[in-house]
Amino acid sequence: MKIKFLQAVIIAALTSTCLSGQQNTIDTILADTSLTGTSWSICFTDAVTGEMIFGHDAERNLASASVMKLYPTSVALALLGPDYRFSTDIYISGKFNSRRGVVDGDVVIKGGGDPALGSEYFRDHYGDVVGQWTAALLNAGVRHVKGRVAAATSIYDFNPAPSGWSWGNLGQYYGAGVYDINFNDNKFNIYITGHNEGSPAVIDSVELYGRDVRLTNYLTSSGRSDQGYVYNTPYSHTAWISGSVPADSSFALKASNPDPPLTVVRLLDRAMRDAGIRIDGSASAARTNAVPEEMTPLCVTLSPTLEEIVKVTNHESVNMYAEAIRKHLGYAILGEESFSAGARVIRSFLDSIGCKPYEAVILDGSGLSANNNISALMTVRLLVYMHNSPCTAPFIASLPEGAVSGTMKSYFRDEFFKGRVFAKTGTISSAKSFAGYVTTGSGRRLAFTMFANGFTVPNRKITDYMEAVVREIIEKY
Fold first, then answer.
1. pTM of the model
2. For residue range 327-356, what is the model confidence (pLDDT) as tens digits?
3. Topology of 86-304 in CATH?
4. Among 273, 296, 365, which residue's Cα sits nearest to residue 325?
5. Contact 216, 242 (CB under 8 A)
6. Per-residue DSSP letters for 203-234?
């Protein structure tokens, strides 16, 4: 830890004196009048020693977009370990007459915060998880449940969405909230047909996971791109859709599930009934108040390892996974159940490795909020620490490779960059970012972060400039 602190001191001391080695590209960027008003924060350091290689306004706080995901994922790997797993437990509450197969109580699903339960990203890991639970009930001899299928009291608080998210994000698939029981990445598809230009679009069907949501449709058929938006709020079972979808085409609009725990309760209820198990009560959103002493464990479903979940989080830029990890840090480390508790864990960790988290504004763990403000310097400090930590292998493996994988498939596609750039990318309105590692021509591994905010030009122009900075670094060092 002392070594890491000294590295941080070196970076801070050299921040304002390392501008001369990289002036060509930066001068070109700053001279471009189409970028007037654009703010930049750029930092490159040696990934081993922390020695500053190049910085431009490295301490300026800017919106990070999805680079923010590196914060909860790296801290979770460091504190919980790559092999950490979430669990989802199935219990029988009340008395169970095994001879008659009668449960004088409920079948209870106790969520442990697994963000990946039932996810298509981990289909091979989970299989038919609801079918497995039903088979376990049948194997235990359950034939009649006098109560109902219910979710246990949540391990988290009631708020599933970070306070930094805008209301307009909550209904979109990328704005899915975090619950103790998550399923199918907390999203569902709405299948729509766009007809003649300007005419109403029609909802053909809704994916199973969203059939409990009552939809009001204001969509029109227009153009060739998806401009449809879903509006709902957590725990509400009504939503409306407005905007437009491509004319003369069939289309799947992705929406967030406002109540995943209820979805899972109803899926298990339906599967049990289909298997011939009688259930007297009806599935509902109401949580059971059964105490642990009255609950008999039946089966446990474990998640993939944290290492695997972190890799999907950063490769596919899944907001819900990043927020779930942040929230669970508060629960696992502090015994508290909120996003703010997770944020305190992250800030404490950053402080312990020589960062200055009190100088940053961190409103979420995914980067969806436009009001996050962090610096390239602080992000690079974190990257240097992770490069030299016991978790370096799983952390670097979680970063997409330029032109090859995840969200980096469309970036650094020139053959010059092949095998050299591994980074998390981020994009929100007027904000573009990259952060990760680059290998120079001399074989030196550098940690880097680049933020650009406030531009009005197309994203591709900003990306081209950022790639030019990286190219010059590779060539010079």
1. 0.94
2. 999 999 999 999 999 999 999 999 999 998
3. D-tyrosyl-trna(Tyr) Deacylase; Chain: A; (3.50.80)
4. 365
5. no
6. EEEE-GGGTTSEEEE--EE-SSS-EEEEE--T
